[in-house]
């Protein structure tokens, strides 16, 4: 039980929420990718980006380590922004709302954006939640431990 009076979420509930959020994260990643490719293509067509002998921007992007890294970092930044924004704003992503979960500081307050960034780093693409399986008493994941936060189950609204 947390200090806020709500029980901490176990692995199954976290995993269910993670499943929903993965689908949303994929959609965010795809939208960010479409935008980045549009910008990249426009800069390529305008001659601002050297075509390096390629006739199509996707060929340049796929054959250039620098451009590939920049595009993928852009996409991952938007996915990270999705999680950090919702965690700091309401403590819930779309998947967490469906599973009645909330991430919060141990005192029950909303987490900051800085704490959200730390959670993103320590979550290891969701693998940090596996620690909950082995910590049945405290139900704290790797990211919970490193950021002094918790994920709680909210009561059913009638």
Explain what you see.
The protein has helices at 11-45, 57-63, 65-89, 94-98, 113-123, 131-134, 142-147; strands at residues 101-105, 149-153. It has 158 residues and is mainly alpha-helical. The protein has one domain (11-153). The protein has a two-stranded antiparallel ribbon with strand order 1-2. The longest helix is centred in the N-terminal third of the chain and has 35 residues, at 11-45. It is elongated, with a radius of gyration of 19 Å.
Describe the structure using short key phrases.
single chain; 158 residues; mainly alpha; two-stranded antiparallel sheet; 7 helices; 2 strands; elongated; transmembrane; Pra-immunoreactive; membrane; RDD; transmembrane helix
Short synopsis of the structure:
This protein has 158 residues and is mainly alpha-helical. It has one domain. The chain has 7 helices and 2 strands; from the N terminus they run ααααβαααβ.
Measure the end-to-end span: 22 Å
Strand-pairing-aware structural class: mainly alpha
- How big a fraction of the residues is strand? 5-15%
Write the element-wise H/E pattern from the N-terminal end onward: HHHHEHHHE
* E-strand count: 2
SSE order and pairing:
Elements: H1 11-45, H2 57-63, H3 65-89, H4 94-98, E1 101-105, H5 113-123, H6 131-134, H7 142-147, E2 149-153
Antiparallel strand pairs: 1-2
Helix pairs in contact: 1-3, 2-3, 3-5
């Amino acid at each position: 039980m947390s200090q806020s009076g709500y029980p901490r979420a176990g692995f199954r509930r976290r995993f269910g929420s993670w499943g929903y959020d993965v689908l949303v994260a994929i959609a965010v990643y795809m939208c960010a990718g479409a935008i980045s490719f549009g910008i990249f293509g426009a800069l390529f067509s305008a001659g601002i980006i050297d075509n390096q002998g390629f006739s199509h921007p996707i060929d340049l992007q796929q054959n250039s380590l620098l451009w590939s890294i920049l595009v993928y970092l852009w996409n991952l930044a938007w996915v990270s922004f999705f999680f950090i924004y919702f965690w700091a704003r309401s403590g819930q992503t779309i998947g967490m709302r469906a599973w009645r979960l909330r991430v919060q500081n141990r005192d029950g307050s909303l987490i900051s954006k800085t704490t959200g960034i730390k959670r993103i780093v320590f979550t290891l693409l969701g693998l940090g939640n596996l620690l909950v399986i082995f910590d049945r008493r405290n139900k704290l994941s790797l990211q919970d431990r490193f950021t002094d936060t918790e994920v709680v189950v909210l009561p059913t609204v009638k």
